[in-house]
Amino acid sequence: MLLVRRGRPPGQGLWSVPGGRVEPGESDAEALVREVLEETGLTVTPGRLTGAVDRPGPGGVVYEIRDYLAEVSGGTLAAGDDAADAGWFTDDELAGLPLVPGLLDALTGWEVIGRPSGSSATG
Predict the structure, then answer these.
(1) Which residue of 46, 81, 97, 117 has the smallest Cβ count within 10 Å?
(2) Strand 42-56 vs strand 62-75: parallel, antiparallel, or unpaired?
(3) In-domain check, residue 66
């Protein structure tokens, strides 16, 4: 699983999947390609929607988050933009990381990953 450590709020210092805002006139697929490149240095080919959640943000804003699968097609992994770090992690490694709230449950609920062994914590 490709994750980035958030370099800014919300979730500063926590690990999450790469992502960001969909700009006006931009499709989800276009935003996915742009955000992954900006945050990780990797080019990707978008895949299917895996799931969607709403999460509270600062000042009462609610973020609508849609997560997609993607396949790496090029580039070199390096943290960029608002990411403080980036890396690849196994399902079992996820349970030991400080993840943004709800990420581990969402990924397992959407069957993107299996429940990491020994994990009962939410992440």
Answers:
(1) 117
(2) antiparallel
(3) yes
Amino acid letter for position 42? L
Task: Give how many domains the chain has, as a whole number.
Answer: 1
Compute the distance between CA of residue 107 and CA of residue 109 in angstroms, rounded to an integer. 6
CATH number at residue 74: 3.90.79.10
Report residue 57's pLDDT band, with 50, 70 and 90 as the boundaries.
Answer: confident
> Is residue 119 situated within a structural domain?
no
In a domain, 75, yes or no: yes
Confidence (pTM) = 0.87
> How far from chain centre, in Å, is Cα 15?
8
Higher pLDDT, 30 or 115: 30
Find the domain containing 65 and state its range. Answer: 2-109
Contacts of 20 (CB under 8 A, 6+ apart): 31, 35, 38, 39, 82
Q: Do residues 38 and 80 make contact, with C-beta atoms less than 8 angstroms apart?
A: yes
User: 122 falls in which pLDDT band (50, 70, 90)?
Assistant: very low
Q: How confident is the model over 98-120, as pLDDT tens digits?
A: 999 999 999 999 999 987 665 44
